[in-house]
Write a structure and sequence with these properties.
The complex is a heterodimer of chains A (about 325) and B (about 280). By secondary structure, chain A is mainly alpha-helical. Chain A is about 75% helix and about 5% strand. Chain A has one domain: MetI-like (MetI-like fold), CATH 1.10.3720.10. Chain A contains 14 helices and two strands, in the order αββααααααααααααα. Chain A has a two-stranded antiparallel ribbon. In chain A, α5 packs across α7 and α8 runs parallel beside α14. Chain A is globular. Chain B is about 75% helix and about 0% strand. Chain B starts with 8 loop residues before the first helix and ends with a helix. The chains are: A mainly alpha (about 325), B mainly alpha (about 280). At the A-B interface, α1, α3, α4, α5 and α7 of A face α1, α4, α5, α6 and α10 of B.
């Protein structure tokens, strides 16, 4: 080992030691735990003993209707949350990136600000704004003849989606805006010279060029969505709420561990959730992989490549008109 | 640029900025409500007209906040500062050291190892909280500061950012010059690399500080002693009481407002840094 390799090892050691301790070992331990069950011996006086139970915890979790329904809730949440989030953040970023926008710095900061609010506090603020006794919003809606129960079975999901959108819309908008700013302006100018209008430039040139960012944001949002916990937990405390203590898989695992002290079941539920996340991440990267890699290299190379890319687009368009 | 072809440029400009302004209203009105609501007592809050400074009593709320349960709120505040400050400082140093090593050194298996780091970004961390709790209870550190501080020292995304920043901010020539002058590798990192990468260090610090300040699930699992709570967990506990005792509402609201202030100040004053972080993340 030469001096440089030794230095690299020294600089990497703290991170990888901790990485092993707080990520690798807990993953392994969760898998291990999920294979055991605590059995009460005799009449429960002899204390509990831990016995190997194979995949019993997994069949128990999957056989539990509450757990399966949690995945149904997640599916609904992902469908109602991720498309509006991506479309909204992208739309706002395109507006901000358009030549017509004013006060860009102000808009960027103001839209980003909810990210500075801790998730638990965001959830508290919104739940107070949903509570009829506290909320000027509900009162105004009622005065306008619109009654809406944010805690009802049909209202709970939109209520939570709204909290999440409020927290993440601006954050992701800034990511998209940063990616749009990195797009080579000469490509856009070339398109405009060729007669493409603002909409055409936005959707046929800008959006495809920042595809990698869109996929990345989508992936992180998906993984975050699967862990849904804090917002429904706060909503659950609301009076007459439709949200139960096992509403999402993460809440199910938490309840299994800390209310019922069934660590095996909780570990199995966590492992199943992590597996779902791994499978979906794999699917997303696979499905979007080829295009992503192409844009990635385009983004990483010097602007010259992107000008070349723009040139090919131009010639292609000219051929079409000719 | 070509001349505007449509006669309705003024109209489009109004539409674009109007749409952005509408989005800003949606983002800011809950925060405005938080500010006005923090000036009311329980009766004023329940009377509903919270978007005004009617019955202004912020001072009363602050003193009740300071007095309740022997000022436990400010203990939580200090805890949050400790967790987030110390945790983010150590985490940034660890991340920057690793990111710098990934950028500046060639060693066998480097890209595979970096792939492991990137995989770590995708791990759903809440799934780890339960096994981490059980491991911590076997190590006897459940319900201590360490139980919350240790896990937040690891941020794979921070390592990724640090590698990008190291490539951008630390020119190899500067390191060569130091080596020619006879400085050792670690010394070069400490006195040259770390100094040059400082803007990136601040970015990683800012994001990790926010993440720890906002952290809820981990302390919820690890802590049972109220004296060790961070703000997020303390406010959650108070909120759970508020349905039975409405007097807790103004405490939660005022406490929430104070808890948001440091991060808002940080994000307003460090705009360059969070934008740099999101830019580095966006062109990955």
């Amino acid at each position: 080992m030469n001096a440089r390799t030794r230095a690299a090892a020294t600089l990497l050691a703290p991170f990888f030691l901790l990485f092993t301790a707080v990520m690798v070992v807990p993953i392994g331990y969760a898998v291990w735990l999920s294979l055991f069950t605590e059995k009460q011996s005799g009449l429960g006086f002899g204390g509990a003993e831990t016995v190997f139970s194979g995949l019993d915890n997994y069949t128990a979790a999957l056989g539990d209707r509450a757990f399966r329904e949690g995945f149904g809730v997640l599916l609904g949440y992902c469908l109602f949350y991720i498309p509006p989030l991506l479309a909204g953040a992208l739309g706002l970023a395109l507006l901000l990136d358009s030549a017509l926008a004013r006060a860009r710095r102000f808009f960027q900061l103001a839209l980003f600000l909810p990210h500075a609010v801790p998730g638990i506090i965001a959830a508290l603020i919104w739940v107070y704004l949903y509570t009829p006794q506290l909320s000027p919003v509900v009162r105004a809606m009622e005065a306008g003849g619109v009654g809406f129960d944010f805690f009802s079975p049909s209202g709970a999901l939109p209520s939570i989606v709204n909290i999440a959108l409020w927290e993440w819309l601006g954050y992701n908008m800034v990511i998209f805006y940063a990616a749009l700013q990195a797009v080579d302006r000469s490509v856009l100018e070339a398109a405009t010279v060729d007669g493409a209008g603002a909409w055409r430039v936005a959707f046929s040139i800008k959006v495809p060029l920042i595809r990698a960012s869109i996929v990345m944001v989508g992936l992180f949002t998906l993984i975050g969505s699967l862990q849904l916990f804090t917002e429904p937990l706060i909503l659950e405390k609301g009076t007459g709420s439709a949200v139960t203590s096992t509403w999402t898989p993460n809440m199910y695992a938490y309840t299994a561990a800390f209310d019922r002290n069934d660590y095996g079941l909780a570990a199995a539920a966590s492992v199943l959730l992590a597996l779902t996340a791994a499978l979906l991440s794999f699917a997303v990267t696979r499905l979007t992989g080829r295009g992503t890699r192409r844009t990635r290299t385009a983004a990483r190379r010097a602007p010259a490549t992107r000008t070349a890319d723009g040139r090919t687009r131009r010639t292609r368009r000219k051929e079409k008109t000719a | 640029m070509s001349k505007p072809r449509t006669p309705s440029v003024w109209l489009s400009r109004t539409a674009v900025n109007g749409a952005l302004a509408l989005a800003v209203v949606y983002m800011l009105f809950p925060l405005v409500w938080l500010v006005t609501a923090a000036t009311k007592d329980a009766g004023g809050l329940l009377a509903g007209n919270a978007f005004s400074f009617e019955g202004f009593d912020l001072g009363g709320n602050l003193s009740r906040l300071a007095e309740h349960n022997d000022g436990i709120y400010f203990r939580w505040y200090l805890n949050s500062l400790l967790y987030a400050g110390l945790g983010a400082l150590a985490c940034s140093l660890i991340s920057v050291a690793a990111g710098y090593a990934f950028d500046k050194y060639a060693f066998p298996g480097k890209e595979k190892l970096f792939g492991v780091v990137l995989l770590g970004v995708l791990v759903p961390t809440t799934a780890l909280a339960l096994p981490m709790y059980l491991l911590a209870s076997e190590a006897g550190i459940v319900n201590t500061y360490a139980a919350v501080l240790l896990p937040v020292l690891v941020n794979p995304f921070g390592v990724y950012l640090a590698r990008v920043f190291s490539a951008g901010y630390v020119p190899d020539e500067a390191l060569e010059a130091a080596r020619i002058d006879g400085a050792g590798e670690l010394r070069t990192f400490w006195s040259i690399g770390l100094r040059m990468i400082m803007p990136g260090f601040v970015t990683v610090f800012l994001f990790q500080f926010t993440a720890i300040w906002n952290n809820f699930f981990l302390p919820l699992v690890m802590l049972s002693d109220q004296k060790l709570f961070p703000l997020s967990l303390g406010l959650y506990a108070w909120n759970s009481n508020a349905h039975a005792e409405p007097d807790f509402y103004p405490l939660v609201v005022t406490g929430s407002l104070l808890a948001v202030v440091p991060l808002v100040v940080a994000f307003v004053s460090l705009q360059r840094h969070w934008k740099a972080g999101l830019t580095a993340g966006s062109v990955k």
